[in-house]
Amino acid sequence: MPTKKKPQVTATPERRRELLDTAAEVFAEQGYNATTVRKIADEAGMLAGSLYYHFDSKESMLEEILRTFLDELWSGYDAVLDAGLGPRETLEALVTESFREIDRHRAAVAIYQKESRQLAAQQRFAFLAASQRNFEKAWLSTLERGVVAEVFRADLDIRLTYRFVRDTVWVAASWYRPGGQHSPEEIARQYLSMVLDGISARE
Amino acid sequence: MPTKKKPQVTATPERRRELLDTAAEVFAEQGYNATTVRKIADEAGMLAGSLYYHFDSKESMLEEILRTFLDELWSGYDAVLDAGLGPRETLEALVTESFREIDRHRAAVAIYQKESRQLAAQQRFAFLAASQRNFEKAWLSTLERGVVAEVFRADLDIRLTYRFVRDTVWVAASWYRPGGQHSPEEIARQYLSMVLDGISARE
Amino acid sequence: MPTKKKPQVTATPERRRELLDTAAEVFAEQGYNATTVRKIADEAGMLAGSLYYHFDSKESMLEEILRTFLDELWSGYDAVLDAGLGPRETLEALVTESFREIDRHRAAVAIYQKESRQLAAQQRFAFLAASQRNFEKAWLSTLERGVVAEVFRADLDIRLTYRFVRDTVWVAASWYRPGGQHSPEEIARQYLSMVLDGISARE
Amino acid sequence: MPTKKKPQVTATPERRRELLDTAAEVFAEQGYNATTVRKIADEAGMLAGSLYYHFDSKESMLEEILRTFLDELWSGYDAVLDAGLGPRETLEALVTESFREIDRHRAAVAIYQKESRQLAAQQRFAFLAASQRNFEKAWLSTLERGVVAEVFRADLDIRLTYRFVRDTVWVAASWYRPGGQHSPEEIARQYLSMVLDGISARE
DNA sequence: TATGAATGAGGGTTCATTCAT
DNA sequence: TATGAATGAACCCTCATTCAT
Prior knowledge:
homotetramer; Tetracycline Repressor, domain 2; 0% strand; DNA-binding
């Protein structure tokens, strides 16, 4: 691996963040492939070529966006998983943390949702697959603990349940808009209510 | 349908179907934008240019795939909605029908999930937006009916519930593989069980 | 040069003529390059591939159209040039003959006007250049004879005059429509009047 | 004329002009349809894609070439038409101006001659049709004025005369080469002599 | 830091042509 | 004779990327 010279973190790392935020917004809105480097530059008020002073490539921007997001996400998740909570409380905390993450990194989450599967196949984005595996491990074990503790129903296919909960939470990024009428915690509460107790009225 | 003279659906509509199935598979796997016409042709065992004997453009292939899917979907939905069922039975039937559709048109559903939002902005794909509106109408009214009839909980935000159910069902297309261990009806049953009664054990 | 098998003059040579007439019309209207073989076939009520039963190539159609036209043109010109007329009568006869040719072969003349220069560079269309040389020879000698005989003005550049007369006549093909209010002979008469005596009133 | 690489310290609009001049030359020589964008780029010493930094499309290059030409042409014509000259002097001035324009914009004129008719049908090139109408108006009214003033012969069909003069002048672009032995003014004089007084010797 | 201009590798599409039926 | 389907080369255009200034 030859050392590259380009992305000197000289000057302002804030400018870098700004540009990445802009890029993330456009990626989320138009899709990664459909987004041209020029569109990002336009949005940032510069010319396409100028972006290459800050970043190696379009792909490296994408990578940094996703890496930053996943780092933060896991720092939140790890705190929850290490807190020694019971299975139901763990589930509630994970879901709430997820909605907070959607609130903070809406664009990144949307990108992740949409592109993750194809990206994960590339060497460069192997960290996506790794994260996904950890994710699955955390959820499955939580669900299993809950079944054992008779906190969750035992008659459900556990993998199906995992997918159900996982998807249910993350797709919200596709319609969620920060600053709307519901706070992330409020949405989390409602989602949890549905996921845990169902939508049908109890007799 | 204002398509003029070219590939009249006279002789072999089967070849057309074959090619569209191939295209749908590739679109679903790689994303519409990332899919090259050459890739589709390769998969179909012909040269890129040859596709244009059958179709006007890459976009028209996409359109036909989505139109065909939505036509079938709505023929199923309409049957359910016109059956005069109660709200809970309607919801169950709609969900079941959706999983059947995922089973039959997995690729089309996956494409729809991924590209629909951006596509709908184009004049050509306005029918996507129209379908989405009808979809929303059908679900919201069913949920409202259910709340009135005290079949569904009254304490949930109805739009949030709508999104919850809608997403929950359709994202399944992203991991569902036909011919797996669960039939669509089986999956529908488990999903319904979770959605209606929740995943937590009843005391 | 291997003998080709295709253009059997079997069956009807009339069909051949019909097809060539159709092709000439489209070539004239849209330009040779801009004309697709399919457009010709459409106009003839068949499929593009079917034309290749009758002709070797699009280019061979063009060649036959132009050859046929030039053959007829020269048969008319040669008659005039061999008639032993005086220079002014020769000029009048050539111009009249030209307008008759425009009347009969409007499409071919239009094609000739438009494409001749570029075509002539190709080996295959060398006959166009040859014809052009003969054409020039005939006109220049007629004009020179006329100057010597003091029938034409001596103070004009003879090459310029040649181009003037030549162009003046043939461009008419671009606006002439057979069956209009003026017969070719009538138009020829008026053109000759202008060319010979000018448009200004005599004092 | 070997194309050398200029020491382009050129500001942007000059580069644009250079490229358009190159394009015009190729269009004129090979015809618009037969000209590939790559050929233009070759001639300009760059790659095909690079042209798109300067222009939107091949068609937009054509448009700009023709627009520029017509703008200049009409600025010359308008000066003549507004000068309050008599009909004969107007005709002489228009013809002279036309030959000057051929001298300055030979390529553009040749393109105009060849492609104008088909182009005019397109929305984008409607300005060609408009120009043609103004052209016709100017000439017809000049000829009519001349007939009334008994400066031009009254026994000629005025539309035919219009076409005669118009074509006669502009076709010259197809053989005219700037820097030849005749200046545009000289050619104009000879043409006018023929058009006004005819080529036959006066008794 | 950013610009202007160019590169070069495709990508979608067109079209003359072929050929088995 | 004509059709239906396919070929393959070429075309216009896009876009990530580079680099001298």
